[in-house]
Design brief:
This protein is mainly alpha-helical and 169 residues long. The chain contains eight helices and three strands, in the order ααααααβαββα. It has a three-stranded antiparallel beta sheet. Helix 2 packs across helix 5 and helix 5 crosses helix 8.
Length: 169
């Protein structure tokens, strides 16, 4: 029973922010507009008899908006923190490369490509993948080449190498 209710409510999630904005605007204008103007619109009786419900709608809408803004802000801060932490991690890994790893990365920069093919029997690409500098961009090898797979240079690693060429120097 509760699973059905939760799945039904999750469908409405994209509309929460829009609905809260509409409800807070309407209920706020009904609550805070001068009564003589509300009466001139013919809504005086409706507003005065339903003032507690309109106030509750206003508070719930404000709470929903506050929650949505807080969640979005939290996600933004966490994403920025993860990016910064990953950037530091990549720079630390780039500063401790072996000669063959530097040579493999140098070809990405010299040829201005983001993907290269490496043999799985060589350990260089797998080592750089383990360090978070490369990632295998496909689990399908190159047909007819045996064990060659495409590896992508991570954007953060490429940016760090371009800013500090001494990493692969």
């Amino acid at each position: 029973m509760f699973e059905g209710l939760i799945s039904s409510l999750s469908i409405l999630k994209p509309f929460t922010l829009r609905a809260a904005l509409i409800f807070i605007a309407v209920s706020g204008s009904l609550l805070f507009t001068p009564t003589n103007f509300i009466a001139s619109l013919g809504l005086g009786e409706l507003v005065s008899s339903n003032r507690p419900a309109i106030g509750l709608l206003f508070l719930l809408s404000a709470a929903t908006l506050g929650t949505e803004i807080s969640v979005a802000s939290y996600k933004f801060v966490v994403d920025q923190h993860k990016k910064k932490k990953y950037g530091k991690f990549v720079r630390a890994q780039l500063s401790n490369l072996s000669a063959d790893e530097k040579s493999a990365l140098r070809t990405y920069i010299e040829e201005d490509v983001s993907t290269r093919h490496f043999s799985m029997s060589q350990g260089v690409a797998q080592g750089l993948e383990g360090k978070g500098i490369l990632s295998r961009s496909s689990n399908l090898g190159v047909p007819g080449s045996g064990d060659h797979f495409p590896f992508l240079l991570q954007p953060e690693a490429k940016k760090a190498i371009q800013e500090h060429p001494e990493y692969i120097g």
